[in-house]
């Protein structure tokens, strides 16, 4: 028999003491009422796998030649904004070359380039407000550049000098700016993801979102899953922006996961996802705008997976030719997001070779000026290493600092004190 909720009950056969399950025709069977999932019944035993459905498509606005495919998807940005986007991408590229070479010359200790990923940074940054909070990984310098972080700020940080806002306490390229709402980058992989979910939870109702950048390699860490789940269950207005550039240091994506990339993980957590052409600055801009609007309206998270390719080495500690061919790198270099936007601009008479050369020359001059100025500055006074953690320095740190002072005074001929700011 059936109860009022149409649930199937058991009738007892008094003769055989067996329980006979009453059944309804399949077209009137109520759906499963298990609390763990909203689903349907099936009488076909089969696996559900990645081949059970089509892969998530890649959203784009421009084709390979920089032409707008569907005019309805054109963001119709003002010409000066498009030119600014291009110039910032170009500046990041020039800066990369100079600072990378400076590390090779032993002038700074470490560097990471952004080659091939400039559109993911500039396109997303342009779609946000400066009040929106950024949690970066370590390949988002273009976001800072767009927000107003100067070439001098960047050079000072890479040199860790006395004008570095972090006072030399971070590795190079681990930028941060309180004024620009860019949380200081942390070396341990993926720590920013659950932190971003928590920050977004705190910002509910303030008309601000949190943008959390991470790489495909970071998505393999446990903190990524914790961040996704917290954001989904707590309804946090956070955009998880994955730069899927093909490699986690030396590990290609086909050795990292077997599913449909990173975007496919969103629905499994109850998060809406977008997959976008990361070499198309307009597509990245549109996707970020769309995601932000949804986050603010619904107070829910979004995952954006920007498909791109890391043209440069992972860092100055890496030689990528050990795990991929030079031919592969060269072929992807022709897909440069800078070249794609340049082609688009030339077709619209917004750019030409003369402007290109002028901008490149000026960018080189500006970067070298900031570079040499940073190199000439003193390092922060060494006692700074003991500060910045507590509002009032605790006794044990005060004791250590005093002991260090005595040590340095006794052996000062062994330390390059002339390179450090004085007490």
List keywords for this structure.
12 helices; six-stranded parallel beta sheet; single chain; 37% helix; 423 residues; alpha/beta; two-stranded antiparallel ribbon; globular
Number of strands: 10
How many strands, which pairing sense, and closed or not: the largest β-sheet? 6 strands, parallel
Which consecutive residue ranges, at least 5 long each, have pLDDT under 50?
1-25
Tally of individual helices: 12
Order of helices and strands: EEHHEHHEHEHEEEHEHEHHHH
Give the class from helix and strand content and strand pairing.
Answer: alpha/beta
What do the pLDDT scores average to?
Answer: 92
> Please, what is the oligomeric state?
single chain
Shape descriptor reads globular
Fraction of helical residues? 25-40%
- Main-sheet strand order equals 4-3-5-6-10-9
Distance between the termini: 88 Å
Gyration radius from CA atoms, angstroms? 27 Å
As a percent range, the share of strand residues is: 5-15%
Summarize this entry quickly.
The protein is α/β, with parallel strands linked by helices and 423 residues long. Helix 1 (79-104) packs across helix 2, helix 4 crosses helix 11 (353-376) and helix 5 runs parallel beside helix 6.
Could you characterize what this model shows?
By secondary structure, the protein is α/β, with parallel strands linked by helices. The chain is built from twelve helices and ten strands. The strands form three sheets. A six-stranded parallel β-sheet has the order 4-3-5-6-10-9, with helices on both faces.
